[in-house]
Write a sequence for this structure.
């Protein structure tokens, strides 16, 4: 049985390796701080399940303090020149796509098959972990394929990993930090305050306004929390069920489905959904970290309006 | 109302472009204090949630492979293939990917895509190359716009595709929450009502991609080849 913990350990080892490479590069600006940052991140990954939460919390705060006021910046890592890459592309041709496609295909097959294959009555991976375990395995398969097909050395892949990871920068840990912030929001009762605020302002019998308050509320609250799943229970308990379903007689399935999708409109429009919006901007090395959000805002707004109208016209008909 | 202080810190901090890690950490601690939690509980909650959400960091495992592919010329090869297809434009390449991403996500294949796995090594270079094949070298501003669109298409496709799949987290969350409130629905019934929005977003975002094509053609009308 492949436990998710193994895959996390793999991640931890990668981050620790990057920390080591950062340290060994003497010409690296902010060398010690970068080493500390990736080193601590690696430790939280490798030992997350063993460390007491308080210790992890302290490590995370230390890791954040190391980054300081501004980002640490990308490290210069030697890679091929454009001419070399063109030459290599002409030589390897479509072989180049094989490892690239290994990642999604193996992830997909593994997700389907790993929970079904049993050895001594134990599935190879638990169904709930299957996708993540398969992602880890797919990387190993793709890596082996790439090393073999391109005649590269394993060390090169680590240097390349460092090049890309430091290009993403410290933003790489932002999605996890935001999830932690969400947990504190929940513990401190931010949800109740928001839903009380929203319900306080709308007259409960103005049907259209109730619908608008629900869909726009879902989007806004998702923008604050960065996650529609966090906004959903609060808004449905505050407006969806008591007003739309119970008081006005709306259909619960339509209310819930369109409510969640209105939340997704919010996800498109917020930097708080960092793994979807900020991380890709970093990954594509855009100078404006909000570049992706800006492109998504028009679609988010138009779709929110469409969702609101869909809900208004459908929810009382079925 | 004081519990909303964290939200305020995030908005101000992000607007002022302070290091987002610092902003989020300070906002978390402030929220905890305002909510009356003791310091040890705040740090522990922070650590626990950070550990529980390690899965979002697993995507970085792909970077050594992606880097290896890039140094071996994957982008260059993808660009070459696209520039050979006469009818390929940035908007059409992205529209095709939007359709594929939405359809595969709607049958549960959300793992057939992703920002690190697909967008950076394949989709973004193809979208860029389609424009370069038509208009020659692009100014940085246009390049960044095209790259941002490539990332956006992956998000839009997966968000509004996956909700049609009955075994997806969001559908199960809805079902679980309504069950807890005495309303019992089948996952299929919930997923069904995600279809109108899925169609709407394909039309809206698809139209925007074709408008992007028009905008590029207009911007570079004097250097069309």
């Amino acid at each position: 049985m492949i436990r998710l913990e193994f895959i996390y350990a793999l991640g931890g080892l990668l981050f620790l390796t990057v920390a080591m490479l950062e340290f060994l590069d003497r010409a690296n600006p902010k060398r010690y701080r970068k080493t500390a940052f990736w080193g601590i991140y690696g430790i939280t990954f490798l030992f997350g399940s063993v460390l007491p939460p308080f210790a992890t919390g302290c490590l995370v705060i230390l890791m954040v303090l190391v980054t300081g006021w501004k980002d640490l910046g990308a490290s210069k890592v030697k890679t091929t020149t454009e001419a070399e890459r063109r030459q290599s592309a002409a030589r390897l041709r479509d072989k180049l796509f094989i490892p690239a496609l290994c990642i999604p295909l193996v992830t997909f097959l593994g997700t389907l098959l790993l929970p079904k294959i049993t050895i001594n009555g134990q599935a190879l991976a638990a169904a709930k972990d299957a996708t993540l375990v398969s992602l880890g395995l797919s990387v190993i398969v793709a890596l082996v394929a790439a090393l073999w097909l391109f005649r590269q050395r394993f060390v090169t892949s680590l240097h390349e990993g460092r090049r890309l990871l430091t290009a993403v920068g410290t933003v790489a840990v932002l999605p996890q930090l935001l999830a932690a912030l969400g947990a504190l929001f929940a513990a401190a009762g931010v949800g109740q305050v928001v839903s009380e605020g929203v319900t306080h302002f709308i007259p409960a019998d103005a049907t259209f306004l109730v619908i608008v308050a629900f869909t726009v509320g879902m989007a806004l609250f998702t923008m604050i929390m960065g996650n529609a799943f966090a906004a959903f229970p609060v808004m449905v308990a505050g407006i969806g069920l008591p007003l739309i379903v119970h008081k006005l007689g709306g259909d619960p399935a339509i209310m819930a489905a369109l409510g969640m999708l209105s939340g997704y409109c919010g996800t498109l429009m917020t930097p708080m959904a960092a793994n979807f919006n900020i991380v890709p901007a970093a990954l594509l090395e855009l100078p404006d970290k909000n570049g992706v959000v800006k492109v998504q805002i028009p679609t988010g707004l138009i779709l929110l309006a469409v969702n609101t109208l869909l809900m208004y016209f459908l929810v009382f008909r079925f | 109302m004081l519990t909303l202080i964290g939200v305020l810190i995030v908005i101000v901090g992000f607007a002022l472009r302070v290091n987002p890690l610092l902003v989020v950490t300070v906002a978390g601690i402030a929220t905890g204090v305002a909510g009356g939690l003791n310091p040890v509980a705040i740090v522990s909650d922070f650590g626990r949630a950070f550990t529980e959400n390690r899965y979002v960091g697993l995507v970085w495992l792909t970077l050594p492979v992606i880097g290896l592919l890039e140094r071996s010329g994957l982008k260059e090869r993808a660009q070459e293939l696209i520039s050979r297809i006469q009818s390929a434009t940035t908007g059409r390449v992205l529209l095709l990917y939007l359709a594929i991403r939405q359809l595969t996500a709607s049958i549960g294949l959300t793992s057939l895509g992703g920002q690190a796995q697909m967008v950076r090594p394949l989709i973004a270079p193809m979208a860029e190359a389609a424009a370069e094949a038509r208009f020659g070298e692009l100014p940085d501003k246009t390049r960044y716009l095209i790259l941002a669109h490539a990332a956006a298409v992956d998000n839009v496709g997966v968000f509004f595709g996956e909700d049609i799949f009955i075994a997806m987290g969001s559908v199960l969350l809805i079902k679980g929450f309504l069950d807890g409130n005495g309303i019992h629905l089948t996952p299929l019934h919930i997923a069904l009502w995600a279809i109108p929005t899925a169609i709407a977003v394909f039309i809206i975002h698809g139209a925007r991609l074709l408008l992007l094509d028009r905008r590029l053609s207009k911007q570079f009308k004097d250097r069309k080849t």
Notes: Chain A touches chain B through 144 residues (CB under 8 Å). DSSP finds 14 helices and two strands in chain A. Strands of chain A lie at 118-119, 122-123. The longest strand of chain A covers residues 118-119.
